[in-house]
Amino acid sequence: MKMSRYIWMIMMGMVWCLSVSAQSDRRFIRNGNRYYQEQNYAKAEVEYRKALNKNSRNTQAMYNLGCALLMQQKDSAAIVQLQQAGKNETAAKRKSMSYHNIGVICQKHQMYGEAIEAYKESLRHNPTDDETRYNLALCMRLAKKQKQNGGGKNNKQDKNKKDNKEQKEQNQDKNKQDSKQQQQPKDQMSKENAEQLLNYAIQEEKATQQRLKQQQQQPQRRRLQKEW
Q1: 117-162 pLDDT tens trace
Q2: Is the CB of residue 54 less than 8 Å from the CB of residue 21?
Q3: What count of other Cβ atoms lies within 10 Å of the Cβ of residue 126?
Q4: For the whole prediction, is pTM greater than 0.70?
Q5: Distance between CA 143 and CA 113 in Å, rounded?
Q6: Which distant-in-sequence residues (6+ apart) come within 8 Å of 43 by Cβ?
């Protein structure tokens, strides 16, 4: 009888702890929702992360966090949270919303192939969502147009990189030529200076020899030292 009561007390304690934990993460979600409605997405993000720290399997916190990150232009982090929400969510409508938002992010970055797959996954869980259906049709048209124009964003980036590289190489060659041209006059001036100095030295030597010759021809004078 005592043992049964002891076990019952333990079970009640565990239920109470789980209840407190559930209330705690729901409270953080409510706080986050309030900040989100006030468009204070940074504070909303903090509250949703607190909720996940209390309950890492709370799919509502995952989805809401993904939305808060999306509103802050943190697209890569948003996709991670939305993918987790879509993977772990059991309610079809919420799962559909997660993949819809992933499609929105990919569409914004002109990643139409990924957006199409996300929208298709969203429609699998909510076939009546007209907005997702419209976005899917739009992305399919844009993807076709992108292909006809020779590729998408990545190809444009590669082309820009190639153009920049060629321009950089051309500029380097031009700088080398300019540097070479600037160095040539400097070398020529140095050579001219050396010739001038040599001519000056020769003239000085001749003048010195001439003076010595004249001194030898004149009678030498004795120079007396002056006493104090």
Answers
A1: 999 999 999 999 999 999 999 999 999 998 888 765 555 555 555 5
A2: yes
A3: 17
A4: no
A5: 7
A6: 32, 35
